[in-house]
Amino acid sequence: MPNGALATGPVTNYNKQTDRRVDWVFSISYGDDYDKAKAVLQRLCDTDPRILKEPKPVIELLKMSDSSVDITVRARVKPEDYWSVYFRMNELVYKTFPQEGLSFPFPQMDVHMK
């Protein structure tokens, strides 16, 4: 591509679609109850009327990172609700996980000296 040229390709106008997928990754500490975390996330999705019931939200274990167990949540919303749902869910998880006995991990490293 010549200097200064812009890449071209399809442009998606999300406001013209009937729904839009919201993606989150929430992390819990190793030793926390994964099934409980999954149930809490499902409950939070179920109680927000802006999150569409069909297709059902996907809540699955994404990966086991160095310091956390990462859970992905994928839900569908109307395009106009995207950011308000995204930010509200972040806030709800931040407030709800500790109340449910789930902890947020932080990077840590054990050093063993001989």
Q: How would you explain this protein's 3D organization?
A:
With 114 residues, the protein is of the alpha+beta class. The chain has a single domain, classed as Alpha-Beta Plaits, CATH 3.30.70. It contains 2 helices and 3 strands. Strands 1-3-2 form a 3-stranded antiparallel β-sheet, with helices on one face. Helix 1 (34-47) crosses helix 2 (82-99). It is flat. The mean pLDDT is 92.
Instruction: Enumerate the strands of the largest sheet in spatial order, edge to edge or round the barrel.
Output: 1-3-2
Distance between the termini: 55 Å
CATH class: Alpha Beta
| Rounded average pLDDT | 92
Q: From the alpha-carbon coordinates, what is the Rg to the nearest angstrom?
A: 18 Å
Unreliable stretches covering 5 or more consecutive residues: none
- Summarize the helix and strand pattern as letters: EHEEH
Structural class: alpha+beta
- Which range does the strand content fall in? 15-25%
